[in-house]
Every structure is written in structure tokens, then in C-alpha cells.
Amino acid sequence: MHLPPNWRQRLIDGPRNARKSPRSMATSSDATQLDSYDRKILAELQEDGSLGPVEISARINLSASQCSRRMQRLRDRGLIDRTVAILDREALKLGISAIILVRLGSHSAENERLFLERIEKLPEVVACHYVTGDLDFILHVVTRDLVSYEELLRKNLLTGAEVSACRSNIILRTTKETTSLPLHFA
Q1: Residue 167 contacts by C-beta under 8 Å, 6 or more apart in sequence?
Q2: CA Rg, the chain, in Å?
């Protein structure tokens, strides 16, 4: 598998942002131009991405046509990346959620490439963060059970020559999890 030339930026920005042209991405000056209606629209969409302009207009007291125009403008500016469905992990019988802390043997471009190639192929890895400090990556993984979790670690993560160490933390209970971003900074 060959990694795209922008793989490092994709890791930082996420796969969707890396495919956008620089002109379509929101800049900090774009974000500061949000008015109260834009923030209300974004807040409603963060809560329920399936809402259309008519439903949002009733909730924020703005006409449906005005909501539609504003929603399109927010998309065009890159403030709305995509709309997704959030699935119920328990209903899908994915009983194990864990955080894995990874340290690479060296920080060579080749080691990073090898590691990220492997991570891209693993659907169990739902998030991969390149971090500062004594570790290199933090992975959030989801699997069916402890057997599949152990298999993921043993066959897919610990076998890589570029991996120096892994620390594993199984999540016992999640007390807060949200996809909503704080809008009061925008």
C-alpha cells in the first residue's frame, strides 16, 4: 500500500479535511465572522445532523430560506465537514473500547509510514492521534470482546518492528463523550 503524499497532514486534520482545497477550508478569520444565527445553526446540526432548514428555522426563529442559505454558506466555508450517523456501540455488540499508547522505536519517516499504513488498514482503530511527550501515538480502538482485542494487539500492533512499546487501557465506563465542538470560541 502506498501512502498519499499528504499522509502526515491527514493524520493531523483527519481524512476529510486533507482532501479539501485550501480555499474551501475555514480560516480562523472566517470562524470569527459567525453571528449568533450561524452559531445556533451549527449547535442544532451538532445535536442532530439530519435536521433540514425547515426544522432548524422553527427552533431558532429564522426563515427556512435564510436557514438554507446560511447552512450552504457554512458548508462552502468548510465549517460543516460532513454529516454522519453515530452508531450505538453496545447495540452492535462491540463490547471493548480501549486507549492504546504507542511509542515508536525511532522517529524516522519510514517508521511512521510503516506504522500509519498498518493503522489505516485496521477498522478497529477509530481514532489515531500523533502526540507530543514521551509517547508518539494515542489510538482509540473498539472491538467485540477481549479475545478480539488481544488478537488486535498481538497480531497487528505488537508485531511491527517500528513499534517499541504499547500501553493498553480498557475503558470501563465513559462519563462524557461528544462530537460537539465548543462554539463560543468561534
Answers
A1: 100, 101, 135
A2: 20
